[in-house]
Amino acid sequence: MLVAEEVATALAQGRAVVALESTILAHGLPAGRNRKVATAVEDVVRAAGAVPATIAVLDGQLRVGLDDAALDRVCDPASGLAKLSARDLGPAIALRRDGATTIASTTLIAHAAGIGVFGTGGLGGVHLPAPGAASSWDVSADLDVLATTPVAVVCSGVKSVLDIAATVEVLETRSVPVLGYRTDTFPAFYRRESRFEVPWRVDTPASAAEVIAAHRADGPGSGVLVVNPVPHEHELDADLHDRLLAEGMAMVAAADVRGGDVTPLLLEHFHTASEGASLDTNEALVLANVRVAAEIATHLPA
Q: How would you summarize the oligomeric state and partners of this protein (predicted)?
């Protein structure tokens, strides 16, 4: 593992550090825009008093904290970075591949480096059942890693293209505390609210940090999920959202798309059919989440 000097120094001095994933850069945003967001998220973390640590795998090496050249490489479509979940880290390292880290793999690497707070977009969850199926066995590795790794993840819930009800149940079953940041309901990524309540609410970074510290001291060893709704002014219009979701699900059924191919297809439809509105929402919520993550990190004990 190669930890950037800025990150290593901050950790040694007990200063706040926030982990950032690279999948959103390599796979979630268009070329050009992704590089601007890469800089913007790190700037937001620094402005809030913490040190950013963007994580990726380059030449088979775990990288915690990327310089400009490495960020350029991650954001360049020609680099062909693989999407690496937790299960993919070993093969990528052994075969000396390049890869962008998901929430699951970023969380594991952050914990190994001694970083306890991670700001991101939307958590992976339980996928909706395939057409004609009663349930789905497609469950994101994000949930299992969060259940076994004591890292606080700040996100905007899960995307509405997933099974939010089943995801909330899995989090409860796996003993992952869910804190609503200034909200009483579990957010649905593009939308601020779903029909599901959060079990606990916090209204300040200090309160969130206090809960996280207590959970780490006396809890079951899991991480903590802090759900922060997208800012009001950037929430996707409800009618547009519902229309795009219905159209996308119809496309999935018609093409008999299954498994891991479902979510990318749905998100691409959102991005294209909304004429970029969903991308604006995505970017806004990521920036809001990393700011909250940094504010929480500055209140956690070293």
A: Homotrimer.
